[in-house]
TrEMBL record:
<keyword id="KW-0812">Transmembrane</keyword>
<feature type="domain" description="Restriction endonuclease type IV Mrr">
    <location>
        <begin position="141"/>
        <end position="247"/>
    </location>
</feature>
<keyword id="KW-1133">Transmembrane helix</keyword>
<keyword id="KW-0255">Endonuclease</keyword>
<dbReference type="GO" id="GO:0003677">
    <property type="term" value="F:DNA binding"/>
</dbReference>
<dbReference type="InterPro" id="IPR007560">
    <property type="entry name" value="Restrct_endonuc_IV_Mrr"/>
</dbReference>
<dbReference type="InterPro" id="IPR052906">
    <property type="entry name" value="Type_IV_Methyl-Rstrct_Enzyme"/>
</dbReference>
<keyword id="KW-0472">Membrane</keyword>
<dbReference type="GO" id="GO:0015666">
    <property type="term" value="F:restriction endodeoxyribonuclease activity"/>
</dbReference>
<protein>
    <submittedName>
        <fullName>Restriction endonuclease</fullName>
    </submittedName>
</protein>
<keyword id="KW-0540">Nuclease</keyword>
<keyword id="KW-0378">Hydrolase</keyword>
<dbReference type="InterPro" id="IPR011856">
    <property type="entry name" value="tRNA_endonuc-like_dom_sf"/>
</dbReference>
<dbReference type="InterPro" id="IPR011335">
    <property type="entry name" value="Restrct_endonuc-II-like"/>
</dbReference>
<dbReference type="Pfam" id="PF04471">
    <property type="entry name" value="Mrr_cat"/>
</dbReference>
<feature type="transmembrane region" description="Helical">
    <location>
        <begin position="25"/>
        <end position="44"/>
    </location>
</feature>
<dbReference type="GO" id="GO:0009307">
    <property type="term" value="P:DNA restriction-modification system"/>
</dbReference>
Length: 264
């Protein structure tokens, strides 16, 4: 509005000085051209902002891609179905918040909500891929003994000599897996809720009893903070069953990081 009034004033002044018959030309130059330039500038600014926001979203998803494996694992551990068939997403929402805080992703509430929604769909796909490739599908039964045998069969698929123990004489070990000079004592916990300290304490003691070189707990769910702290102190590996396919790598990585004792 101010631009129009200013241009009209300039056009009138020039027409008064040079003659009123030049008014249309002066009006076009002094009023219409600046208005056109302003419109083009406004449109360009909008396009630039849209491009900036799109680049920002791509960058955020690029950061998520770098943490693909960890995000997929946490999704599998935290998202479960309630008794009514719905997905319990609150733990996952908190995990997304922790992920964003840890990686410096920040923006308006609307932008963050859109990112969380898009990322959740991507992570869900990653988790399904991991279930299909790493563990030949999701374990469906609710039988804990069947879960132990299933975990042993998954390890056998990837080169381990693995057997589920007899429940009456397992000493806290559900599966014993051997490959080369490595012997792993595993406790398999088919829990819908988080796994606590007891499993870590039991498998650590049992591993020493059977002279295993390593100890691990396997579960489809998450572990308590106290359990993670204790496992780190005792050198017990905490796994989701989709990670059994790369147990060798995880043991080697944990030893390199100093989280596990070297092989006996």
């Amino acid at each position: 509005m101010y631009l129009f009034v200013f241009g009209a004033g300039v056009a009138a002044a020039l027409s008064w000085f040079y003659g009123w018959h030049h008014l249309p030309v002066f009006f076009a130059v002094a009023v219409l051209l600046p208005v056109a330039v302003a419109i083009v500038w406004w449109w360009f600014a909008r396009l630039t902002e849209a491009a900036r926001l799109a680049n920002e979203m791509r960058r955020w998803h690029g950061v998520a891609e770098e943490h693909r494996e960890a995000l997929a694992l946490r999704y599998r551990q935290l998202v479960s179905r309630n008794p009514y068939g719905g997905l319990e997403m609150k733990p996952w929402s908190k995990e997304l918040e922790r992920f964003r805080e840890s990686t410096g992703i920040a923006g308006s509430p609307e932008r963050i909500a859109a990112f969380d929604e898009e990322l959740t769909e991507r992570v869900k796909g990653w988790a399904c891929e991991a279930e299909a490739v790493s563990s030949a599908g999701r374990f469906r039964s609710g039988d804990p003994y069947e879960y132990e045998r299933w975990c042993a069969s998954q390890l056998s698929r990837f080169g381990w000599k693995a057997e589920a123990t007899v429940s009456s004489a397992d000493q806290g070990v559900d599966v014993v897996a051997v490959k080369g000079g490595v012997k792993v004592a595993l406790q398999c916990k088919l829990h819908n809720s988080v796994v606590g300290n007891k499993a870590i304490q039991e498998v650590h003691a049992a591993a020493a009893f059977i002279d295993a070189t390593h100890a691990a707990v396997v579960a489809p769910s998450d572990y308590t903070r106290a359990a993670r702290q204790l496992a780190g102190k005792l050198g017990v590996l905490l796994l989701h069953h989709t990670q059994l396919s790369k147990l060798d790598e995880l043991l080697a990585g944990a030893e390199k990081a100093g989280a596990l004792p070297p092989d006996a």
